[in-house]
Amino acid sequence: MPKLGMEPKRRAALVTAVIDEIGETRSLDVTVAKIARRAGMSSGLAHHYFGSKEQMLIAAMGHILVEFSGKVREGLRAAEGPRDRLAAIIQANFAPHVFDPRKTSAWLSFYALAQAKDDAGHLMQIYQKRLRSNLLFDLRKLTPEAELIADTLAALIDGVYLRAALEDGARSDEAFAQVSKALDTFLAAAPLMPAEG
Length: 197
What we know:
Elements: H1 6-25, H2 32-39, H3 43-50, H4 53-78, H5 82-93, H6 101-116, H7 118-139, H8 146-166, H9 172-189
């Protein structure tokens, strides 16, 4: 019988091993045996905790998304006003830790997996819906064109991230500046919400 409390530690070790292994190979062509070895356990134990390599990757992406959500919340708590909050959301998407080569490899692999596996597709939809609702919350305070701008901005965030992630020496500050400038351009061209009172 394993000791009580070992399961969360072993699951966490496997999640880290998945991210490291995919980051090293830059593809989904990794084996459960390699992931398990990196985590310091047997393939059988890895299968016991997750069932398949795909489930390990989904757990790894869930971990990355929880970490990302924490950064968004942290930025939103420090922000003052709708425009500042929008900047915090954009900043979280282009924070330096997001461009960790291991995580970008996991993200790129996850995009491919989301097209083939329902569980992964569902997790991707949750991320996309949360991003859109976060953007809409503050854009609705600024313009009646909030939905159009939120959809365009979300697509731009994903596109700029993918481009930057595929470049050698990607700079998170440049990606952030590019999307922030686009937001300013969108807001300058859009009608403003009428002043209250």
